[in-house]
């Protein structure tokens, strides 16, 4: 390891003990940025990297709520306000039992660079709870969301900090959260994104992350004069991001053969067509069932407790969670002919897996570039809320498409190496850094 990176990481680890995902996210970024900062010492003197690794503010609070049996339950609630150099804090809320400070800090840290890449004026934040919506009734989810927002409402606002969804937080949760904010503050504002279309939401927001990850993959393919046509695509997850990645990859001529959830994956060699995808949407978003039921309905293979990376494919779109592709799985993907990885999820590839992609010089789009479409359309939702009007589906989709092209271009600018290989990791990290760093330099030591 570069000794400067080692030195920097020793400090980050000492200051943030036990936060392994946060250490991982910071290390991936500083490996790209430290050489760049050495060439641009103004950033070094202003300790921009050190400041970026320290949240501006962290809230940690108790969330008491009553379950359907009448028993009191207590969860932890968090909001990390990471960096506001280029705009209000912006980033999702995750409700999942694995949520802890280190996980949310990794997500908030990534969000700062991602939001900068979108070209829109958004700082970075993230929040959530160790609450598990799985198996809870709608009323339990509502009571939890109301209690969570009762505290969170003290810290957020349309010009301060604008949360949205992430794992375990979709349209239902955003509705309950918005209702409680409006009730407490008596304000109808764009304080959250991912709202319903009838009450201030944006068209294409539900689709945006998945579509964006596919648009980004398509831009990478174009650099090789290639496209999705006739490609076999493996997707993990079956939630919001996976669903719309499946839709767009299929629309562009790919054949999506896998989806998964935390219990296992399905393999459908005939491809997940429009009708089958409609079944998945109903299964996951309305019935809240398991992906196994897809295999039962369509008579295809289901692999309990396994991830889909052993299936032969040309394109892999990890759309479930962090560290879901390890070094061995990355090697398997490549030996099976996979040459494109575009990350719908945040940090789905382990450092070992990323090394494998880079050594093999495949087209690898890291999450902070490839999945930025979601927050980008959140930014467009904020714009529409401020203007008090709404754009058409076509308008929003075109803006999203152009933003993904622009992010790709930024990665090419900062990531192209001497032999012509585009290192999208380096490109995304430096491209995201420059705007935030310049803003921090202009605003003094805050
Ligand atoms: P959802 O809650 O809609 O879906 C999550 C999916 O991932 C489910 O299929 C879930 O399975 C699976 N999953 C979650 N945790 C694990 C785990 N520990 N192991 C295996 N599978 C798991 O979330 P999203 O689709 O919104 O988010 C997916 C990823 O995309 C996350 O990394 C998120 O941070 C990222 N992302 C989301 C954006 C958005 O706009 N929603 C924007 C940018 C990135 P199960 O149902 O069994 O839990
Ligand atoms: O990780 C992410 O970018 C998101 N979960 C979306 C954040 C947002 O504010 O739309």
What does this molecule look like?
The chain is of the alpha/beta class and 446 residues long. The protein folds into three domains: 50 residues, no CATH class; 132 residues, 3-Layer(aba) Sandwich (Rossmann fold), CATH 3.40.50.10860; 163 residues, Rossmann fold (3-Layer(aba) Sandwich). The chain contains 17 helices and twelve strands. The longest helix is centred in the C-terminal third of the chain and has 23 residues. The chain starts with a helix and ends with a helix. The mean pLDDT is 98. Bound molecules: NADPH dihydro-nicotinamide-adenine-dinucleotide phosphate (NDP) and (2Z)-2-iminopentanedioic acid.
Could you list some keywords that capture this structure?
Rossmann fold, 446 residues, 12 strands, binds (2Z)-2-iminopentanedioic acid, single chain, binds NADPH dihydro-nicotinamide-adenine-dinucleotide phosphate, seven-stranded mixed beta sheet, globular, alpha/beta, 17 helices
């Amino acid at each position: 390891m570069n000794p400067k990176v080692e030195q920097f990481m020793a400090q980050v680890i000492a200051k943030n003990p036990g936060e392994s995902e946060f250490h991982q996210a910071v290390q991936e970024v500083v490996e790209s940025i430290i050489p760049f900062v050495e060439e641009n010492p103004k950033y070094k003197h202003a300790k921009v990297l050190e400041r970026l690794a320290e949240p501006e503010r962290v809230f940690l609070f108790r969330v008491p709520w009553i379950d359907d049996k009448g028993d009191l339950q207590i969860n932890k609630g968090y909001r990390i306000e990471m960096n506001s150099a280029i705009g209000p804090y912006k980033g999702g809320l995750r409700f999942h039992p694995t949520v802890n400070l280190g996980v949310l800090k990794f997500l908030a840290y990534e969000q700062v660079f991602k939001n900068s890449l979108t070209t829109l004026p958004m700082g970075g934040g993230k929040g959530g709870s160790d609450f598990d919506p799985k198996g809870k009734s709608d009323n339990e989810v509502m009571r939890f969301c109301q209690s969570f927002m009762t505290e969170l409402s003290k810290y957020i606002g349309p010009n301060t900090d604008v949360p949205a969804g992430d794992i375990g937080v979709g349209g239902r949760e955003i509705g309950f959260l918005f209702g409680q904010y409006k009730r407490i503050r008596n304000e109808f504002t764009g304080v959250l994104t991912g709202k319903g279309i009838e009450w201030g939401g944006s068209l294409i927001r539900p689709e945006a992350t998945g579509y964006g990850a596919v648009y980004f993959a398509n831009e990478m393919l174009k650099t090789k004069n290639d496209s999705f046509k006739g490609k076999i695509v493996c997707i993990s997850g079956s939630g919001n991001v996976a669903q719309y990645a499946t839709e767009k990859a299929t629309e562009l001529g790919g054949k999506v053969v896998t989806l998964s959830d935390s219990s296992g994956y399905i393999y459908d060699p005939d491809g997940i067509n429009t009708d089958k995808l409609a079944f998945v949407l109903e299964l996951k978003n309305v019935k809240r069932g398991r992906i196994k039921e897809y295999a039962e309905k369509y008579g295809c293979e289901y692999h309990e407790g396994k991830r889909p990376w052993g299936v032969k494919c040309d394109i892999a779109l990890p759309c479930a969670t962090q560290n879901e592709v390890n070094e061995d799985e990355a090697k398997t993907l490549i030996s099976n002919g996979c040459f494109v990885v575009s990350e719908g999820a945040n940090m789905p590839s382990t450092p070992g897996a990323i090394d494998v992609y880079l050594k093999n010089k495949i087209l690898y789009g890291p999450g902070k570039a490839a999945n930025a479409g979601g927050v980008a359309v959140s930014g467009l939702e904020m714009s529409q809320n401020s203007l008090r009007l709404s754009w058409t589906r076509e308008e929003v989709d075109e803006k999203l498409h152009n933003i993904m092209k622009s992010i790709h271009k930024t990665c090419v600018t900062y990531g192209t190496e001497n032999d012509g290989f585009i290192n999208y990791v380096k490109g995304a990290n430096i491209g995201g850094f420059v705007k935030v760093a310049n803003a921090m330099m202009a605003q003094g030591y805050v």
